[in-house]
TrEMBL record, chain A:
<feature type="transmembrane region" description="Helical">
    <location>
        <begin position="161"/>
        <end position="179"/>
    </location>
</feature>
<feature type="transmembrane region" description="Helical">
    <location>
        <begin position="209"/>
        <end position="235"/>
    </location>
</feature>
<dbReference type="InterPro" id="IPR001851">
    <property type="entry name" value="ABC_transp_permease"/>
</dbReference>
<feature type="transmembrane region" description="Helical">
    <location>
        <begin position="278"/>
        <end position="298"/>
    </location>
</feature>
<feature type="transmembrane region" description="Helical">
    <location>
        <begin position="77"/>
        <end position="104"/>
    </location>
</feature>
<feature type="transmembrane region" description="Helical">
    <location>
        <begin position="110"/>
        <end position="130"/>
    </location>
</feature>
<keyword id="KW-1003">Cell membrane</keyword>
<dbReference type="GO" id="GO:0015658">
    <property type="term" value="F:branched-chain amino acid transmembrane transporter activity"/>
</dbReference>
<protein>
    <submittedName>
        <fullName>Branched-chain amino acid ABC transporter permease</fullName>
    </submittedName>
</protein>
UniProtKB/TrEMBL annotation, chain B:
<feature type="domain" description="ABC transporter">
    <location>
        <begin position="7"/>
        <end position="239"/>
    </location>
</feature>
<dbReference type="GO" id="GO:0005886">
    <property type="term" value="C:plasma membrane"/>
</dbReference>
<dbReference type="InterPro" id="IPR032823">
    <property type="entry name" value="BCA_ABC_TP_C"/>
</dbReference>
<dbReference type="Pfam" id="PF12399">
    <property type="entry name" value="BCA_ABC_TP_C"/>
</dbReference>
<dbReference type="InterPro" id="IPR027417">
    <property type="entry name" value="P-loop_NTPase"/>
</dbReference>
<keyword id="KW-0067">ATP-binding</keyword>
<keyword id="KW-0547">Nucleotide-binding</keyword>
<dbReference type="GO" id="GO:0016887">
    <property type="term" value="F:ATP hydrolysis activity"/>
</dbReference>
<dbReference type="Pfam" id="PF00005">
    <property type="entry name" value="ABC_tran"/>
</dbReference>
């Protein structure tokens, strides 16, 4: 099998597995997987920027929130259709990421991390400031009647699962195509050696800006989808916690791999799930597991697979 | 020499604080020749080629490439016009394979079609003699092979002007001989500006030599003229010039 075939087989295998899960797993896990798939889209968004381009953003919650509030507020106040609201959510994230990219890319390294963190705090504070509309920390609920996606009810277990599955499939396949394209290879080149990439005639700044926009837009789509499928919009999703979580997922799963984001989200979800069955100090167990993984598998789970088993992993 | 001018500098100057790294350099580079730029350590050679390639911003002066003033262009635009640059300190994508390194270099000029690109990569690796290592991770190569890879990345761009900043630094004697053969095989096909300390390499490859000393162009001429030049000998050997 050629490498491209292996990669496709892997991705379709994962999607098939997720499809089978719906029919075989108990309702609890089906619900969990819906959430995991949506959050994995968010992690894919961060992975494009962090894992492939080598730019560490500590403020991705602002893009997630832009998508979430773009959809939530336009349904609540403009009464637009879900499809249009979804478009508005994605557009909000795209515009925000372009603006943040234009400004933050004037910096690099640690400064870039701090600048993105600051912008995200600004977005968080803006959400709180306009509490009259956003209901601040308390947030607001999208009613079942408001959550019909083109006549399709996404509030049922199956509806939610298949919308999440469909969106995740599109993202995984698109992401896989992106990182294997010449564009994706150039992003990796920038990550590996920015000065060399520039001195091969590549407009590094333009590639980085595109990476920020694609990354922010995908993260925003995840935010919009989350609001739609789980019916809740709140400021917590704009807080620093939601900037750090996708970073943990990507690091755990394997930065710079296509399957890492899904693995990372699933791993952390079930780690917290399992440990909270034994103790209320479940974050302590989760924290220990994270420390152990970072010590012994700094490249994440998919990173181990790539070095030990299958070097062709994209 | 009736060759056409490929690149020209006028009054090119670089000042770092109070230090004049390059002072008012007027220089003409002829097309199709191998020109060596030599000079003692700290003479300003790397600063000079840095200003040609756009890595270093000039304090004043102009760079004209094929009749076009490129002084204001950022580095990547200059590379797109046909300059290629190899770093003095090896700069490759150490985490990628040898093949991927050269493919990234070639992809900008070769059509996006995978087969054409692969053929180009293979041909370039053959040219420098590391085709058998195409699938190795670049960072695992020996130092000499990394230098060759970097040269391959320059060649793969099919440059109109190929700037090599001390390419033989740290190479073994046999590797240096291979390098000389490689440069000779390129002679006439592209224009080469070679910064070099190793006089054996300079004498074996250069058609024309320019000597920088203390940021100024000290002398220019054929290898024979330069070796006979008293002020060049003084700059290198530290003798005073008897006028």
């Amino acid at each position: 099998m050629t490498v491209a075939r292996k990669i496709n087989a892997l991705h379709f295998g994962i999607l098939l597995f997720l499809l089978i899960c719906f029919f075989t797993l108990p309702a609890y896990h089906v619900g969990a997987l819906s959430r995991i798939m949506v959050l994995a889209i968010y992690a894919i968004g961060l992975n494009i920027l962090f894992g492939y381009t080598g730019l560490l953003s500590l403020g991705h919650a602002m893009f997630f929130a832009a998508g979430m509030y773009g959809l939530g507020l336009s349904i609540k106040f403009l009464g637009v259709s879900v499809v249009l609201a979804f478009g508005i959510g994605i557009l909000s994230a795209a515009v925000l990421s372009a603006l943040v990219g234009l400004l933050a890319l004037r910096t690099a390294g640690v400064s870039f991390m701090i600048v993105t963190l600051m912008f995200a705090q600004t977005v968080y504070l803006v959400v709180l400031y306009f509490g009259e509309f956003t209901r601040g920390d308390e947030g607001f609920v999208l009613q079942q009647a408001e959550r019909m996606l083109a006549g399709f009810d996404v509030t049922t277990e199956a509806g939610r699962y298949f919308v999440a599955f469909g969106a995740f499939s599109i993202c995984l396949i698109g992401f896989s195509a992106l990182v294997q394209s010449s564009f994706g290879k150039r992003l990796v080149a920038i990550r590996e050696n920015e000065e060399r990439a520039r001195m091969l005639g590549y407009d590094v700044w333009r590639y980085k800006l595109l990476a920020v926009i694609i990354s922010g837009t995908v993260s925003g789509a995840a935010g919009a989808l989350y609001a739609l499928l789980f019916g809740y919009v709140g400021a917590t999703f704009a807080s620093v916690q939601y900037s750090i979580l996708p970073l943990l997922w990507v690091l755990l799963g394997g930065a710079g791999t296509t399957i890492g984001p899904l693995i990372g989200v699933a791993f952390m979800f079930y780690l917290i799930d399992a440990s909270s069955a034994y103790t209320s100090a479940y974050m302590l167990i989760a924290g220990l597991a994270l420390v152990v993984l970072t010590m012994f598998a700094p490249r994440g789970i998919a990173g181990i697979l790539r070095t030990k088993v299958s070097p062709w992993l994209p | 020499m009736a060759a056409v001018t490929l690149l020209e500098t006028k009054g090119l100057t670089k000042t770092y604080g109070g230090l004049q790294a390059n002072t008012d350099i007027d220089f003409i580079l002829k097309k199709g020749l191998v020109t060596a730029l030599i000079g003692p350590n700290g003479a300003g050679k790397s600063t000079f080629v840095g200003m040609l390639s756009g890595r270093t911003a000039a304090t004043s002066g102009r760079v004209i490439f094929e009749g076009r003033d490129i002084s204001q262009l950022p580095a990547h635009k200059r590379i797109q016009l046909g300059l290629a640059y190899t770093f003095q300190i090896t700069s490759i994508f150490t985490g990628l394979t040898v093949h991927e390194n050269v493919a990234l270099a070639a992809a900008r000029t070769v059509s996006a079609d995978g087969n054409t690109l692969n053929a180009k990569v293979h041909q370039t690796l053959n040219q420098v003699g590391i085709a058998d290592r195409a699938d190795q991770t670049a960072g695992d190569l020996s130092y000499g092979h990394q230098r060759l890879l970097e040269i391959a990345m320059g060649l793969a761009q099919e440059p109109r002007l190929f700037i090599l900043d001390e390419p033989t630094q740290g190479l073994a004697e046999t590797e240096i001989n291979d390098f000389i053969a490689l440069i000779r095989s390129l002679a006439g096909r592209t224009t080469i500006l070679l910064i070099e300390h190793n006089m054996k390499v300079v004498m074996a490859t250069a058609d024309h030599i320019a000597v920088l000393d203390q940021g100024m162009m000290l002398a220019e001429g054929t290898p024979a003229e330069i070796s006979a030049n008293a002020s060049v000998q003084a700059a290198y050997l530290g003798k005073t010039v008897d006028a």
